[in-house]
């Protein structure tokens, strides 16, 4: 049995692999957000509650650092789909372990969602939920910095 490499298929396979790597490399800039309690839609979170979010896509994962202050008893953090004036569904559970005003982790994100966030980061926001503000204590729209 003869094994011949079909040049067109080899080039296509290499191009597809390279485009996947290039897509993650294309977002080598940081994904960021500035969180504020006042930005919560439908009611503000705790007075003075604020934070910062920075992340990068690496090998199919979103690796992030979330820093915050004046947000006591945080219980969750997510990325939601929604503009600055609307609440939206959770699209990424950040699965944070909160400690001393900070959380960081790497979580898997589907390729289609990575592409969507790359195309229009501002259509997504990150927020922190606390015991007292389970619907959201502070939020900020995503952008690439």
Decide which structural class fits the backbone: alpha+beta
How much beta, percentage-wise?
35-45%
Radius of gyration: 19 Å
- Summarize model confidence as the mean pLDDT: 85
Question: How would you describe the overall organization of this protein?
Answer:
The protein is an alpha+beta fold and 145 residues long. It has helices at 7-26, 111-119; strands at residues 31-36, 50-58, 61-69, 74-81, 90-93, 102-108, 124-130, 138-141, 143-144. The strands form 2 sheets. It has a 5-stranded antiparallel β-sheet with strand order 6-3-2-1-9, with no helix packed on it. A hairpin with an 8-residue loop joins strand 4 (74-81) and strand 5 (90-93). It is globular.
Question: Can you lay out the helices and strands and say which pair or pack?
Answer:
Blueprint (H helix, E strand, L loop, with lengths): L6 H20 L4 E6 L13 E9 L2 E9 L4 E8 L8 E4 L8 E7 L2 H9 L4 E7 L7 E4 L1 E2 L1
Antiparallel strand pairs: 1-2, 1-9, 2-3, 3-6, 4-5, 4-7, 7-8
Short note summarizing the structure:
The chain is of the alpha+beta class. It has 2 helices and 9 strands, in the order αββββββαβββ.
Which structural traits does this protein have?
single chain, alpha+beta, 2 helices, 145 residues, 20% helix, five-stranded antiparallel β-sheet
């Amino acid at each position: 049995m003869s094994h011949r490499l079909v040049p067109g298929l080899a080039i296509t396979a290499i191009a597809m692999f390279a485009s996947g790597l290039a897509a993650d490399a294309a977002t080598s800039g940081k994904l960021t957000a500035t969180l504020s309690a006042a930005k919560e839609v439908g009611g503000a979170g705790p007075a003075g509650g604020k934070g910062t979010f920075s992340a990068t896509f690496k090998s199919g994962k979103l690796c992030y650092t979330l820093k915050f202050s004046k947000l006591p008893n945080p219980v969750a953090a997510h990325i939601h789909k929604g503009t600055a004036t609307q609440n939206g569904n959770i699209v990424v559970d950040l699965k944070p372990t909160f400690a001393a005003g900070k959380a960081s982790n790497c979580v898997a994100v589907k390729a289609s969602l990575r592409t969507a966030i790359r195309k229009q980061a501002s259509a997504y926001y990150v927020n922190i939920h606390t015991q007292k503000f389970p619907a959201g204590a502070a939020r900020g729209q995503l952008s690439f910095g």
